[in-house]
Every structure is written in C-alpha cells, then in structure tokens.
Amino acid sequence: MRYSSLLACTALTLIATTGLAHADDVTAWRLFVADHAEAKVTAIDLATDATLDTFPLESPGVLYTTPSNQAVYAVEGAANRVSAIRSGIEIEDHGDHGDIHVAAPETISAAISGNRPVHFVEHHGQIALFYDGEGVARLVSEKDWLDGDDKLAIREIPTNAPHHGVAIPWGDYAIATDFAPNGETTRPQGVYVYDAQNAKLGDLHECPLLHGEATSGNITAIACATGLLIATGSGEPSITHLPYPASLPEGNVSTLLGGVGLQYFLGNYGADKIVLIDPAEADAFRLIELPTRRVHFAVDPQQPKFAYIFTEDGKLHQLNVLSGRIAKSITLTEPYSMDGEWSLPRPRIAVAGGEIAVTDPLKGLVHIVDAASFELDRDIEVAGLPYNIVAAGGSGTTH
C-alpha cells in the first residue's frame, strides 16, 4: 500500500511539473487607432507592428477602454451610437497569477443607440453613456456587453433636459448631471445621486460649468468651475466639495485623469498648465507650468509615478507625479499648433505596457517610445489620419 501510494504521488508530481513545464509567460499588447476622417478603427499587434484587422464604423469614433482590457468602445457621435470591438485579449485573475487568452479581435454585434452620445464612463464593471441630445444616461453591465447579447439590459436615467452631461455608475446607485439653463452654456450646473429606482436622493450637489470626471483608487472626482466634487463610499456615494485654493491663478479644470497604482488626479488648467491633485493632502493642488500649450496627456498604469504630456511644439514630456516636475522630453513630430478648431487632427497618446504610442495624423504614423529609456524606438505606418488611440493588453500565463 505504501509503495502504491508512493507511485501515485510520483505520478501526480510528474503531471503537475509537466503542466508547469508547458506553462509560458506571455505579454500581448494591441493598439486600436481611429481615423480622423474615415469611419474605421485599425487594430495593430505591437509584437509585430502588423495590422490585425480594420473595423468599419458608421461614423468616425472616439475610443475608450476599461480596466478589463477586453474591449474597445467607439463613441460614434455623428451616427448616434456606441459600438464595441473585442480586443481578443483576456486575462483571468487566479490570485497568484493570471491566465492570458489571446485571439483575433472582432466586432461585438451589440451597440447602444441614442441622440448624440458623448461621454463614456466605466466604474466597477458598469458602463454609463450620456446622450447629450436627449439628456439621458444609459447604463449597462460590461460583462453583458462582452457576452455579445444584442438585447442588452439597459438602465435609463432621464435628466431634466438635453445638455452636455455625464453619468457615473455606482453599484445600485448612480450620479448624473442636472442642467440649469443660463443662456450661456449647455454644460451642467451640478449632479444628483439616484437610487436603483432612479429617484433623486437629497439636494443638488452644485458644480457650475461641470466638465470632466475620473476615478483613482476609491475616489471619484468631478471637475467644476469652483473646484472638484469628491465622491466616495461603497454604498450610496458621499459627495463633498474640494475648492480651488486662492494660490491658483484664475481658471478651472475641465479634463481629469485618475492615477493607477498611486491615488492622484491630473487635470488641465489653462492652455499651458496642468494641475496635480491629491484630495488627501492639505495642499491638494500643485500647478505645473508647461513649456508651451498642451495637446494631450495620459497617465502610465504600468509605471505609476509617471504621466505623459504632448505639447504643440511636437514634444512628448515625461512627468514625475511624485516630484511634480518634467523629468524627460523628446521631440516626436513637427509642431501641431493649438490655434484653430479643437477638433482638428492632432496627436493622441496611449500607454501599452513598456511602450508609449503617439499618433501623428498628418504623417500617417504612430510613434513608439520606449518607456524606460524614453527614446523613440520605431514608427508604425497607418493609412489615413491616425488620430484617437487606445491600448489593450497585459501579461499572463498560457498552459
């Protein structure tokens, strides 16, 4: 019996070690690039720089991803719809490791229609889309969308009027904007908290000229003309106001990004400044002067202490968010002036693991910068006017 048990244990050990021997660590990253003029998205494999596929849209789209990295979402404003493309990369979390599954990217048939979609927000596995032409927020589970069911269960939150608004899912609750017409702007003047039955809870949380929201860690921030609204809590959200300090010059934040790995927010503040925000600090706001006007900026989820800013002189800057200083700069493109319409084709940034991708629409290129050396590694040619860009991917084990 003891000999039989020893044989059984040996066999199991051999099976286990054989399984481990056939396990490989794999890193896979893909870029998805939307064209400025054509209704299409190009998927690029960063391991080979090859085009995997080109996906048609119904109108030019603005692209978004979520922490799951399983899909790319295209807000097609002119076509009055939001569509999705499966990234083909899925990482299963097993606690001590993640299993990665890599497949071809493909269109997800389910799309959500409505009048003039603009803002896309993901929060804890739920997605909120705000349709400015209706003043209606539509909320959906990302899992349901990824399952590809054409008949998505959609929760609708009607606000009081069409406006340039936003909604934030919050478990059974939601935060959504309210519009008070003042003859000058279609931007909202505050938010309400809604319960699961879409009933308003409490009074309006005032936030004049509201525009911009982001989540970092367990904090969500919403930008106002007077400061930030800070939302926290695991049940009904608690909302407080963080005013701009008197030390800041005249201005306000209207675009917010949330740090990953480190809890902070990065916002625009005037044409040639940005502001670092840590709501937990007594001096919550740190103003950073840029060498010239800002075109685009992004945070680095892989190297949490860094963020990146592209300025109109064609330079990409590495910002150390701990010191609040620009650490490195590199010239990537010819100048892209910020004069003229806001919607002109200008570079956009995406971070893909250890690489930073920057579109160069007028040259038909995507520049790839090595994040460690902060030097140009290579260029990828993309037909048309490569404009909005997102990255999807990660690392895991294959068996």
TrEMBL record:
Signal peptide start-end: 1-23
SUPFAM superfamilies reported in the protein's UniProt record: YVTN repeat-like/Quinoprotein amine dehydrogenase
Name of the protein described by the UniProt record: Zinc transport system substrate-binding protein
Superkingdom, natural source: Bacteria
Keywords: Signal
